[in-house]
Amino acid sequence: METWVVATGLIALYLLFTLVMGAVANRRLTVDIEDFFLYGRKAGFIVLYLTVVATYHSAFAFLGSGGFFYTHGIGFWEAGTWTILTGAITYVLGTRIWALGKKFRYVTPADMLADFYESEAVRVATALISVVFTILYIQVQAQGLGYIINVASGGRVSFELGTFILIVVAATYVMAGGIRAVYWTDVLQGVWMYIALWVGGLYLAYTLFGGPGELWNRVVTERPDLLTVPGPRGFFTPGMWFGMTIVLSFGIVFQPHMWIRYYSALSDRTIKWLGATTPIYLMTIYVPAAFVGLGGALVMPELEIADRIFPEMLFAHAPAWLTGLVLAGATAAAMSTLDSILHANTTVLTRDIWQRYIVKDAGQGHYINVGRGFVFILLLVGYVLSVRTFDLLVVLVSLSGAGALQLMPAVLGVCFPTRHKLTRTGVLAGMATGLMVLHITLVVSLHPLGVHAGIWSLLANGLVTWSVSRFTRPPSPATVDRIHGEIERFVYGQRQETTGQ
Amino acid sequence: MNGEPGDRRSHWWPRTRDGRIAVILFLALFALVQPPFVHGFANRIEPRILTMPFLYFYLLIIYIALIAVLLWAQRRKV
User: What CA dihedral angle connects B50, B52, B58 and B63, to 10 degrees?
Assistant: First the structure.
């Protein structure tokens, strides 16, 4: 049987399975916002682990990472820094977000920030940043899906049609089963993508080079320029290295699809285990990606689109069943992130905009149905964006992360009690400045002085937030005491009395 | 505490011994996988270790150590 038939068939089988999972999740769904949007705050370790890693890794890990190793060399092994930092942030910050979410019934990131800063403007700004920048992420995943099915079918299914089919499938099961469908499919996707990447990477390393050891020998001999930084094209400068570490850790954690996972956890212990153990999965997935990218640079040095190196090598050197298995795994990687973002953006739009400003006191079923409507709208927006623009996947992810990074000073002001309180005016001025600087350092002058735009924008944001907060009115003592008091009790086991009481 | 309304002790520095150890260890190790270490001392192919280029192995070992710190913090209930 021809490879494209097996590959496309396995992807079709996989899609069918996700739809079945969506249908089963739909039967378990109750008419309850917290059930549809937050899994009833009952997600245990295994489900949460696999949904977090599957959501974190996407088309980016499967296609973009191989492409980066191929083009820029070993510098992409830097990925370990941001995946491990993500674990640490989950451990320290994720537990605090969980505690506040549980205590004050927060559903979205904006719920928390608006409550502390006592500001509807903060709510709207947070919601907009959450949605606008993660729509870019929808675009990344949709483009990844388009590539995958286009390559898997040997060009018989166009990029546009492939993107459309896969987005529609993801949207269907999200609408049917809400976050339960997302989490259940992510469990399958998280396992499948990890096995697929390792099996595919090792197979290519052994088949083409006789094993990883010989692969390293060949790269040392033939392409030593790939084995140091900043790499053959000078990409991994010190400023970019540090910038990508921050942007792809904090910037991803502050996106609503990751943040909402903290709210949905069963307990703080679940989150701490996540923080300590998810880096193992997140980091080690880049080991086979290095085999693919560096090996590809030796055997297919003239590839036009670097992101296609993995599927192209499989088609050229692997049996049909393995190619199908891996490409279905790549589909899983992209869909597990896409469905989470669709769901998270739906949650934000329904909760922060519709429920807050348009229809305030409707029944829970109304908001669930509105959420389903938003899934459909986001599907259309994501599709249009994905077929009209085109760029390297990793660059798009960086832009997305840098946008969400603008929430960082505001979040730290809530989660880390300190003597100097940040204010609503301060965080709004900081976000506006950060976004402006992000525009300048990405569009007008790209990564000035070799430092990532996300770092410039975060520095400007932090400076303005802190400065403006010095001479503007802080949140009321009652609010500060309620929220920071809860953090104190949660972290150190007792509610510290303050002089404000 | 400076006596202002709503004021409380800062959370930026851990108050427990294990917390402080975990933070210092993590930050120290993390600094080793950032510039200038990566772009200076570690930025070479030789000596190769277990066939891996030096930079790759150097990063791998520190990543493992960082994960070990997180696991230790979890065990100590930091």
Answer: -90
Tell me how close the Cα of B26 comes to any Cα of chain A, in angstroms.
9
Judge contact between A287 and A293, C-beta under 8 A. Answer: no
> What size, in residues, is chain A?
501
Euclidean distance between CA atoms A142 and A210, whole angstroms: 35
What's the rounded Cα separation, in Å, for the pair A456 and A3? 47
The DSSP output letter for A474 is P
Give the mutation candidate from B8, B24, B66 for the A interface (greatest A CB count, under 10 A): B8
Domain ranges of chain B: 17-75
Sign of CA pseudo-dihedral A95, A100, A103, A105: negative
ipTM: 0.93
Partner-chain residue, chosen from B34, B51, B74, that has the shortest CB–CB distance to A245: B34
Return all residues near A475 (Cβ < 8 A) that are at least 6 apart. A116, A117, A118, A421, A423, A424
Question: Residues A50, A55, A60, CA angle at the centre, nearest 5°?
Answer: 125
List the structure tokens of A383. Answer: 């599709």
The yes-or-no verdict on residue B5 having pLDDT over 70 is no
- pLDDT tens for B20-75 read 999 999 999 999 999 999 999 999 999 999 999 999 999 999 999 999 999 999 99
Three-state secondary-structure class, residue B30: helix
* Intra-chain end-to-end CA distance of chain A, in Å: 76
Q: Percentage of residues in chain A with pLDDT exceeding 70? A: 96
A499/B7 touch (CB, cutoff 8 Å), yes or no: yes
Question: Which chain A residues are Cβ-neighbours of B38 within 8 angstroms?
Answer: 78, 229, 238, 241
- Choose among A442, A371, A380: nearest CA to A405: A442
Q: Give the confidence band of A147 by pLDDT, cuts at 50, 70, 90.
A: confident
Q: Assign A497 a pLDDT band (cuts: 50, 70, 90).
A: very low
Look at residues A328, A331, A263, A334 and name the one whose alpha carbon lies nearest to residue A48: A263
Question: What region does A155 belong to: left with phi over 0, alpha with psi -120 to 50, or beta?
Answer: left
Closest CA relative to residue A347, chosen from A31, A108, A52: A108
User: In sequence order, what are the residues at sequence separation of 6 or more whose Cβ sits closer than 8 angstroms to the Cβ of residue A115?
Assistant: A104, A106, A479, A483
- Does residue A45 surpass a pLDDT of 70? yes
Rg (CA), chain B: 18
Q: If we measure between CA atoms, which residue out of B60, B58, B30, B27 comes closest to residue B45? A: B58
Cβ–Cβ below 8 Å for B73 and A276:
yes
Q: Which CATH superfamily is domain A3-417 in?
A: Sodium/glucose cotransporter (1.20.1730.10)
Domain spans in chain A, listed from the N-terminal domain onward? 3-417
Helix axes A79-89, B54-75, angle to 10 degrees: 10
DSSP per position, A405-433 = GGGHHHHHHHHS--SS---HHHHHHHHHH
Residue A473's SS3 state is coil
Q: A113's torsion region: left (phi>0), alpha (psi -120 to 50) or beta?
A: alpha
